[in-house]
Design a protein that fits this description.
This protein is α+β, with helices and mostly antiparallel strands. The longest helix is centred in the first third of the chain and has 22 residues. About 40% of the residues lie in helices and about 15% in strands. It has a domain of about 35 residues: 2-Layer Sandwich (Wheat Germ Agglutinin (Isolectin 2), domain 1). It is built from 2 helices and 4 strands. The strands form 2 sheets. It has a two-stranded antiparallel sheet. It has a two-stranded antiparallel ribbon with strand order 3-4.
């Protein structure tokens, strides 16, 4: 009798798991559509130190990107 109850419990658990997989949200990463974040922006690499900085914060000097004014001044000396 106990074996039948255990077997019934396993079958019910497997059915619930299968129904959840079929009708639930798909947790796989490939199912998620990648959308560009409207608040994101491109990054540029500082010519002096190599750190990546958002384009809005970059300092251009002689068409070279820098993360701060000190690096732009130091690289020109």
């Amino acid at each position: 009798m106990i074996i039948r109850l255990i077997l019934l419990f396993i079958i019910v658990a497997m059915l619930l798991w299968l129904l959840k997989r079929l009708f639930g949200k798909d947790p796989r990463p490939e199912a998620i559509e990648h959308q560009d974040n409207p608040g994101s922006e491109n990054m540029k690499q500082c010519k002096f130190c190599g750190i990546h900085v958002p384009e809005s914060s970059i300092i251009l000097y002689n068409d070279n990107p820098y993360c701060c004014q000190d690096h732009a001044d130091s690289d020109q000396q």
